[in-house]
Amino acid sequence: MDRIILKKGREASLLRFHPWVFSGAVASIAGNPAEGDIVEVFSSDGSFLATGHYQKGSITVRVLSFEQGEIGEKFWEDGIRQALQARKAAGLFGSDSTDCFRLVHGEGDNLPGLIVDYYDGVCVMQAHSVGMFRSREEITKALRAVLGDSLKAVYDKSSGTAPFKAGLALGDTYLYRDPSFNDDEQTVRENGHRFFVNWTTGQKTGFFLDQRENRALVERLSRGRRVLNLFCYTGGFTVYALSGGALYVDSVDSSQRAIDMVERNVALNGFYAGVNTSYCTDAIDFLHSVHEGAYDLMIVDPPAFAKHRGALDNALRAYQRLNAAAISKAAHGALVFTFSCSQVVDKEAFALAVFSAAASAGRKVRIFDRLCQPADHAVNIYHPEGEYLKGLLLYVE
Q: Under a CB-based contact definition with an 8 Å cutoff, are residues 373 and 210 in contact?
């Protein structure tokens, strides 16, 4: 196995179990590893530190294990089994009301570079590294071993996440499918609500599972309110708000495919069409078109404005403009749920952008709650960078 030798004194983060080795810490490489190969990491004095996937770029190694040994069948099965056990502990797997959740969340489950979302027996996989992409067959085998007869299919959707410059043969495909299962879409349950999920045509893996607990909070606070759901995607917040007793919901998204799915999900949950009005348009344009005081509850949940640190300044300005537009149109006494899913935007920077938005709008605003990702999107305590979803519940006077 090829070896990565660190510079003197650069082993401290690995001794604290941080799962990344940065290129600046590397003194030399013994061997000629290809991207995605499994390598061992040693300190300058020859002490073993970790085993992981080698990759090009600022992160040289994503650590799979801090113990010396083979990364084989047992490793993958143990990793998937431990991830499933954590979901059982969180009350998700086997729940009567919820049959969709994130089964593997990268570094949060000690499998950096791997995402697996579970939709009532269908596992949708996304590899964010060459090493995980090359390990797809082993991961599929482990999923079959751990999930047994409950597994209907494993679908690889890595074309949008695996490094495109690595020359990989990317193409979304089934890695396993039970002969009796022939669908690309099915109905799942989340907190008792039902949703159509299509993992082949939908964004990400088909549904945004990380907002489950925040959707439940919207449900509890929606009674008697006029609701605006910006960047609504397939209508998760819309369905919860209607279930909570909202007077009506306006759902806005720039994708017609998403809007079509919103209306299907509203009907699936037994609501008549008149309680939700869908708009296929830009969110800012929509906000500029409505009158002040139009909504008592607003959800502002945009896609990631910054996918790398170089885009951070522009992203913060975008968050400020968007939230200023939303706060300025909120009714007196309105609640505003606002989110950022950009990993490079930390909680403090996001809160400052929203503070600037409130000041720009000239409104009195209180923070009622700080919101985050749920347990199945676990954050490894040694990898705080994994806490990507942050949100604020605002009260606008």
A: yes
- Which residue in the list 100, 123, 232, 341 is annotated as catalytic? 341
CA distance 124 to 140: 10
Active site residue 341: yes
Gap between the Cα atoms of 381 and 166, Å rounded: 30
pLDDT in tens, 371-388: 999 999 999 999 999 999
Instruction: Catalogue all structural domains in the chain, each as residue range(s) with its CATH number.
Output: 3-65 (2.30.130.10), 73-188 (3.30.750.80), 208-396 (3.40.50.150)
At residue 386, the pLDDT reads 94
Structure tokens at 181: 């299962």
Rounded (10°) angle between helices 236-243 and 212-221: 30
Instruction: Lay out the sheet containing 153-156: strands in order across.
Output: 100-105, 114-119, 122-127, 153-156, 173-177
Q: Which two tokens stand for residue 118?
A: 């579970």
Q: How many other C-beta atoms can be found within 10 angstroms of the C-beta atom of residue 174? A: 14
What are the residues whose beta carbons fall under 8 Å from the beta carbon of 23, sequence distance 6 or more? Answer: 57, 58, 59, 60
The secondary structure of 160-188 as a DSSP string is TTS-GGG------EEEEE-TT---SEEEE
249 Cβ contact list (under 8 Å, min separation 6): 227, 228, 229, 238, 241, 242, 275, 276, 277
Give helix then strand counts, H and E, for the chain.
10, 20
What does the alpha-carbon distance between residue 321 and residue 302 come to, in Å, rounded to a whole number?
A: 12
∠281-283-287 over CA atoms, to 5°? 110
Q: Is-contact 129 53, C-beta < 8 A?
A: yes
* pLDDT for res 308: 78
Contacts of 254-260 with CB under 8 Å at 24 or more apart are 254/280, 254/281, 254/282, 254/283, 255/280, 256/280, 257/201, 258/203, 258/232, 258/233, 258/234, 259/232
Handedness of CA 95, 99, 102, 103 (dihedral sign): positive
